[in-house]
Amino acid sequence: MSIPTDQALLLARWQFAFTVSFHIIFPAISIGLASYLAVLEGLWLRTKNTVYRDLFFFWSKVFAVGFAMGVVSGVVMSYEFGTNWSGFSSIAGSVTGPLLTYEVLTAFFLEAGFLGIMLFGWHKVGPRAHFFATLMVATGTLISTFWILASNSWMHTPQGYAWQDGRIVPVDWLKIVFNPSFPYRLMHMALAAFIVAATLVAACSAWHLLRGRKDAAIRKAFSMALWLLLVVVPIQIVVGDAHGINTREYQPAKIAAIEGLWETETGGTSLNLVGWPDMDKEETRFAVKVPHLGSVILTHSWDGEIRGLKSFPKEDRPNSTIVFWSFRVMVGMGMLLLLMALAGLVLRRGGRLYEQRAFQRFVLLMAPSGLIALLAGWITTESGRQPWVVYGVLRTRDAVSAISAQQVGTSLMILVLVYFAVFGTGIYYMLKLMRNGPDLPRDAAEEDASDTGKGQPRFDHRPLSRPTDPIDE
User: Fold this and answer.
1) How many domains does one find in the chain?
2) Distance in angstroms (rounded) separating the CA atoms of residues 338 and 230
3) Rounded to whole angstroms, how far apart are CA atoms 321 and 319?
4) 221-252 burial by CB neighbour count: b if 16+ within 10 A, else e?
5) Which of 392, 415, 374 is nearest to 195 (CA)?
6) pLDDT (tens digit per residue) in 107-156
């Protein structure tokens, strides 16, 4: 059996980073859209306004495609634990394995059990039963988030375990699940998913407004998305601040790397707004500093002390160059989203929300901003944990399988080709659906005729025709 080299370790990390980056896109969309669908159907039942029902039908198509791709892309990562990270599975599997199993037993079964009713049962079950199914799917996505983040957070702030015969064994499951960073990571991820969904809905609506569609469904979706961003983005900023303080306490090397801070400054720590951390020279080149701002943000005091990277052994330092800029990309996207939400509020009060084309173009350009912020945040989180796979407990080098660089490189190339072909097609189809938009309003006679149930909308009777629009015209 071959011994893993530095190159094999690097390729294994790149492969997992590639697959998880593809995967996280789709659950984030599914989590946000599932809750959005529940809200739409609840409003439809309460008001009987057909706009909400039409929006539900439209966005359920996008949700269905995203959910399917999320399931498929997630399966690959479970195999990678065995092929590339058998050391991690062997040493820490007794903790992470059950947590992922709980996710399958609770969330995935709940989603799978009610998904068919939600997508294909509009004319098969009563309105209340269908709404219950939609609520269960939305709840399932949030429960899935709970277990996945519990497992990931434990890897960052491990507790409730003991070493036994060279392996990590669980001692206290409550401490394992509710580890110190779990509440912050759970809230941060859930809010990020809502932001992702809101930016997609807002951008899709902006696209149709720019094309001249100003019917009630388009305007309602545009308005709802901007209201959600106006509420959620400020909350996300507050949660992110609390998460940063928690990270400073439990992962101080990560904070130093994020800030590009090499020396421990007494009497107040400056904030490097921009710069280029040089890992070899142990300095942040071209830094633009703001005195005391680092202390204000990370300690909420004027003269709080933050440890510099030089106070940690070289082998325990994350790559500051990566996390310094990934963090700033995430924050930059967040600030732009806040600006967009506030601008929408100003235009709404001036009665120009649906008329201001410059703002609508801005919203359209911001379509990928939620996903960019999400991916940048995950890069910051996971790269900042290095060189540990379980922080302070198990090094990444000790978690990799006994594989060669050639083996990992070959599988990585295959995955890249397959992923871009399969998921690229799926993303293209989702964009195609969004480009077509909700169905145009129908007159009352046609509405009555189409709402009789049996023999009507094709997707209710042929599951594979749920997305009723072809990929190509």
Assistant:
1) 1
2) 7
3) 6
4) bbbbbbebbbebbeebeebbeebbebbbebbb
5) 374
6) 888 888 898 888 888 888 888 999 999 999 999 999 999 999 999 999 99
* One-letter amino acid of 456: Q
Residue in 290, 262, 263 with CA at minimum distance from that of residue 274: 290
Environment class of 277 (CB within 10 Å of its CB; exposed 0-12, middle 13-18, buried 19+): buried
Count each helix (H run) and each strand (E run) in the chain, helices first: 16, 6
Query: What is the spatial distance between Cα 32 and Cα 36, in angstroms, rounded to a whole number?
Result: 6
Q: Answer yes or no: is 274 within a domain.
A: no
- Evaluate whether 385 touches 318 at the Cβ level (below 8 Å): yes
pTM, to two decimals: 0.88
Tokens of 70: 């999320």
Domain contains 272: no
d(CA 213, CA 440): 9
Domain that holds residue 403: 6-238+321-465
Rounded to whole angstroms, how far apart are CA atoms 355 and 78?
A: 48
Maximum alpha-carbon separation in the chain: 75
- Tell me 353's DSSP state: T
Q: For residue 374, is it within any domain?
A: yes
